[in-house]
Amino acid sequence: MISLRPADQRGEVDIGWLNSQHTFSFGDYYDPQHMGFSALRVINDDLVTPGAGFSTHGHRDMEIISYVQSGSIAHKDSEGNIKVLSAGEFQLMSAGSGITHSEYNASQTEPLKFLQIWIQPNALGGTPGYQQKNFGQAEGLTTIASPYGENRGEKGGETGGEKGKEGGGFELKQDATLSQLILAPKSEQVYQIEAGRNIYVHHVAGQLSIEDNPLIAGDGAKITDMQAITFVNASDRQATSLIFNLP
Hints:
Belongs to the pirin family. InterPro entries: Pirin, Pirin_N_dom, Quercetinase_C, RmlC-like_jellyroll, RmlC_Cupin_sf. It holds the Pfam family Pirin. Its cofactor is Fe cation. The protein is mainly β. It has one domain: Jelly Rolls (Sandwich). Helices cover 0% and strands 52% of the residues. The chain is built from no helices and 22 strands. The strands form 4 sheets. The chain has a 7-stranded mixed sheet, with no helix packed on it. It is globular and about 45 Å long.
């Protein structure tokens, strides 16, 4: 079954320096029909004005992923990480037993647009962690985060990910895989799904359809009880989506 989450039906918060579109209930936005999906708790589509941002605040027991679509993030945390994330980069901050951090638009002249994603871990506590990388723009599926990380083996396709690739991406404290899908114009991609797995698609850019369901930027889709889905890009432009393979 495929259940669509149209971009224009998301919750919205606009406080001047921040405009945020919430896929799931978050902060002052509450919708009992959209409280998360499996271990996926938050997808916030944030637009931050130049020089503004989130002052120092704390998290614990959450896997927090940021994906910069345009602009750059100035990041600083209590573990001593002082970083700048540029457009195209991903960051995974494992809050573990507790971490504080701040996130600001690193530019005084250009806006910042990024996705903030929260995934609930399958183990509480532990040492906080930080990972950052640009995974490039290769066509097809690229693993961004998985329980295995870059250096631990995973049989290709076991969780619906890239066929024939060992591991890949950040090490995530959950039985979940986040992949980036980039489809060239006039192309398609079949995605296999193991029994019992739940899939969430957040569409980032371009035009895409999933089993004849069209998606535009910001749209989402919950996918359950299916063995495979086919992504189709019938347009003349590249299309990009994030795919969450969840327990």
